[in-house]
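tool=predict chain=A
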Amino acid sequence: MTDITPEKARAYWGATSRLMWIMLAIWFLASFVVHLFAPSLNGIRILGFPLGFYMAAQGSLIIFVVMLFWFARKQNEIDEEYGVAED
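tool=predict ok
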């Protein structure tokens, strides 16, 4: 970030900050909100396991892994847009 103007730096931080807040919201939903509904989902069974258990044990982990790849791609796009991408 050698030749970046203060305006461009503020815009870059704004885009990065928005992405961070989106990621935190998705993380919160996958970590807490989905688990609040787990007991009511236990009436549905998938492969012999209650759906609530499956969502708590496996679904959240899948969401987190997808989030990591999505975040890396979006952050790279932001970096390229503002000219601060790594080589």
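Residues 6-36 form the longest helix (31 residues). Residues 6-81 form one domain.
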